[in-house]
Write a structure and sequence with these properties.
Length: about 400
């Protein structure tokens, strides 16, 4: 195949890359998406994510994006003409001691300062009224009623399908091996289907972004983590509406429409050496399941049906690098979402597309790649090479 010329190349067809492609194509741009596998396939994060759609608990740098994204989610199924299994059941952060309640008081105040004005502190009675069957040790909660959940593979494929309807081209099963530079400008990429020359490149390749960036000398301060998910057998009665988490525990717990319980919360597996797959950790499965059963004993009446991991790029400060790369023209990053990028996808897609078009995007100010320079090379190497035996992502 000869040299291909396109206006914008998006590397990575996950939920972030496909949202960006959709928004770019909707602007009328020529967009090529290069995806190393199939869209939303094992072991990518967009295939494996827990699917929480939340605002509360966000870093301040993500607050404006979270507000925009949450406002768009209720109409996203209609916009993308797809069933995303979206449900607005709220998000409930639980406290189990007086000290944790004190943390929640400060937490709720902070959420309201960020603009999440409907987030509220619930006392014991209100928490147990909202979720029947919680363990009696739960004494308070922070409730964000506009939050919810959706199906990540369905959502990713819906963004990709919508992007295609607007004219975007997808090259599935196509590895991008390197970026191509001319002076201080990125001019294209080398792929398994040949060389692509472009005006703009958006790097959104998830856990595999670091190797691609390294081909032009960029050492991204991100590392790969395998985040575990568990699915239970279906309960006869569907009782859990909000997504549950807890101040003192690693847990994300939701109930799907078929009655199954879906568990996440940052419990770790292990990526295999070439990042083509993962290995589960029995201790993580046991710990995650035990935590859910302790908080909501009804979970313990079910069996574990399945467990899996997705490979996620964790950034050195647990927030993504999104925006233009300093001193390199033509390259935009959307990487390092650290286990909480799914909910932001509609807003990330819109803002990155606006930035590629040359429009101001103040919503990205706190997430810009320029902050990479704030980390010393020794810090970055220590972070990347650290062996993690604990649950470090939400």
């Amino acid at each position: 195949m000869g040299i291909i010329t396109e206006e914008v190349l998006v590397i990575g067809g996950g939920v972030i890359g496909s949202s960006i492609a959709y928004h770019l194509a909707r602007q009328g741009r020529q967009v090529l998406v290069v995806e190393r596998s199939q869209v939303a396939s094992r072991p990518a994060a967009s295939w494996a994510s827990a699917g929480g759609v939340r605002r509360q608990g966000r870093h301040p740098a993500e607050a404006q994006l979270a507000l925009e994204a949450i406002a768009r989610w209720p109409a996203l199924e209609q916009e993308l003409d797809a069933d995303l299994h979206y449900r607005c059941g709220g998000n409930l952060l639980l406290a189990e001691s007086a000290a944790e309640v004190e943390q929640l008081v400060n937490f709720v105040h902070h959420q309201q300062e960020l603009g999440f004005t409907d987030v509220q502190l619930l006392d014991r009675q209100k928490v147990h009224d909202l979720v029947a069957g919680l363990h009696e040790r739960v004494i308070a909660g922070s409730y964000s009623p506009a939050d919810g959940q959706a199906d990540p593979p369905r959502t990713t494929r819906a963004f990709a399908a919508a992007a295609r309807r607007y004219g975007a081209i997808y090259w599935d099963e196509t590895l991008c091996s390197s970026l191509l530079m001319q002076g201080q400008r990125v001019i294209g990429a080398q792929t398994a289907r040949g060389e692509v020359q472009v005006g703009q490149i958006v790097l959104a390749a998830g856990a595999w972004s670091d190797d691609i960036a390294a081909t032009i000398g960029i050492r991204l301060p991100i590392r790969t983590r395998a985040l575990q998910m568990i699915l239970s057998t279906p309960a006869n009665v569907k009782t859990l509406q909000p997504v549950l988490s807890a101040v003192g525990r690693s847990l994300s717990l939701k109930q799907l429409s078929d009655g199954t319980f879906f568990l996440g919360g940052g419990w770790l597996g292990d990526p295999v050496s070439n990042r083509s797959d993962y290995q589960l950790r029995p201790a993580s499965i046991e710990g995650n399941w035990k935590t859910a059963c302790e908080l909501l004993p009804e979970v313990g009446q079910q069996q574990i049906s399945n467990a899996w991991c997705g490979l996620e790029a964790q950034s050195i400060d647990n927030i993504p690098f999104t925006g233009n790369v300093p001193c390199i023209e033509g390259l935009t990053l959307a990487v390092g979402f650290s286990g909480h990028g799914f909910a932001l996808a509609p807003a990330i897609g819109r803002t990155i597309a606006e930035q590629v078009a040359g429009h101001p995007t103040p919503e990205l100010d706190g997430l810009r790649p320029s902050r990479i320079a704030n980390f010393q090379p020794g810090q970055v190497e220590a972070f990347i090479n650290e062996t993690v035996d604990r649950n470090s992502l939400e």
